[in-house]
Amino acid sequence: MAEEHVRYPEFWLRLPKSGQVARGRLLTEKGTKGRQKFVVAAGSPVRSKVVPSFAVRKPASFRVRQELIAAGSIRESDSRQGSLETTLDIEFTSPSAAAEVLMGCSVNGWGVWKSADGESLAAHLNQTVTGPNRPWLVRGSNVTGLDLVQRLWLPEGRVTLAAARLRQGVEQGVNKETLRAFVEEDYESTATYSQRQQLVEELHVFLSRMKPGDTVCTISGGQLYVGEITGDAEQVDSEDRRSNLQRPVEWQQNGYPYDDLPEELQQKLSIQHDVVDLTPVQAHVEGLGLTDQELLEEAEAIERDPSVEIPALTARRELKLPEPTDALAAELLVHDADWLREVRDLMWDERQLVLYGPPGTGKTYLALKLAEFLGGGPEQVKLVQFHPSYAYEDFFEGFRPQEDPQTREVAFRLTAGPLRELADLASREGNRHIPHFLIIDEINRANLAKVFGELYFLLEYRNKSVRLTYSGDDFALPPNLFVIGTMNTADRSIALVDAAMRRRFAFIELSPRTEPTSGLLRRWLEKEGKDAEPADLLDALNSRIDDPDFRIGPSYLMKKGVYREGGLERTWRTKILPLLEEHHYGEGVDIEKRYGLASLRESLA
Prior knowledge:
By secondary structure, this protein is an alpha+beta fold. It folds into 4 domains: 2-125, no CATH class; 135-314, ph1033 like fold, CATH 3.10.590; 326-509, P-loop containing nucleotide triphosphate hydrolases (Rossmann fold); 520-604, no CATH class. The protein has 26 helices and 24 strands. Strands 8, 9, 10, 11, 12, 13, 14 and 15 form an 8-stranded mixed β-sheet that branches. It has a 5-stranded parallel β-sheet with strand order 17-20-23-16-24, sandwiched between helices. A hairpin with a 6-residue loop joins strand 21 and strand 22 (474-475). The chain is elongated and about 105 Å long.
């Protein structure tokens, strides 16, 4: 035993609240599954209580703790009242198993065991791989036709990569450039250039970026399985060449149904690579299977700083769209707050909707005001206007000429468009529970399939990711990003909207024949203390227009200039009658006689 202790110094584990310190050493000996063993010294303190989730979350450590207590290897302390202690040196399968038994909760032993100078065990062993622990996705459910997760990983406590043609002797911690040279030579005739580049990335993660204490996830049979990496990478010559690179893993006993996972986590898990960094959704992974109360109890057990919010709870902070109030309905001059609530519910369910109707029905104004209310302010709202020459590169991302401010040279650089900018803002930590809105004015004037590109898919499948055309990034629309489009029906373009567009958006009509538009002008005139004649004239005008898509909206008459001397006549002559002339072009209709103010006033009289 003494020889095993020579290589590593003593590490300490401070128990929360009591301040008592347990002592232990890492052993050179490894268990049957490749885990590096850890021994806890006799007389080390042990927490007397375990958190309620311990038995479910870490059943193996819970069972070991119970067995040690039953055997007397852990008993009540004579010197520390109300505490337990070890009565002899106890050997554990890993540093995490040791820490979990001592603390009675799920904890990462590679981070909590510290040397005398405060260096974590992981940092001491992996000087080239430092920093906080990360979660990784490694796919194993279809490795050349076999489900290695059920066949090998879970039963034997491992995670593997095929690396069937990678030469023997590649060491853990190998740098990427050396690994790239190996892959280029070893896979030259069996993989394409892009396949070799992707393989370099995945092998480098497995060999040089993963470290003991990191979390590993995998999917099999509609379940997400989660475990902790407990040892170094090894290169072996596996019999079927499906698992030449291996790491030991302590898997949690139960999986989590994929369909029940948070949407953001599903988005990352849908990325089609064999190895994926899940750090952006680490909080969701850490909270799997635990209630809010259990998360709080675990945080208390490890004495987490109470001033810092628990990431898993922050990630669960509910995204909400506030319910429209009567005050908002009064501000927007909407006839009934229930109509606004219905729009809000539709927005929540679909996340994309289109307000459509004739000109002047207040589509853009309503979209902006409603988005500002639901998002909590104008900072969360961005407006773009589509037009026939609008393209994907304008909307999402593309290469555009930019001048270097120092050299004054012009070069093409990848530049984010309004949707990418808003999506990046919405997906930042701290913003994920705040609704963000993209308003697309005149959405039907552009070639939507061309503008949205591969994003068209994401509008319908929000829990998926896609590979972007220019940057090559894996991208998903944040759950808190909502889209409101406006569409003018006077040009008949709504009839040209294809089925794919209709499937991805909910459509709400704003028409002069129905509320909230039909009575909007009358409510505005009453609010402004003006005579109701313009509303009567507008109603009379629209009653003479047979085609509902060409009826005139009230916003033309909701401007101050209309109510200066001669303003109504001027607006009628220059704004309204030209629309109707275009509508009746070539029909020989006398526009002035049919729609002019004199004719309408005469009919009202």
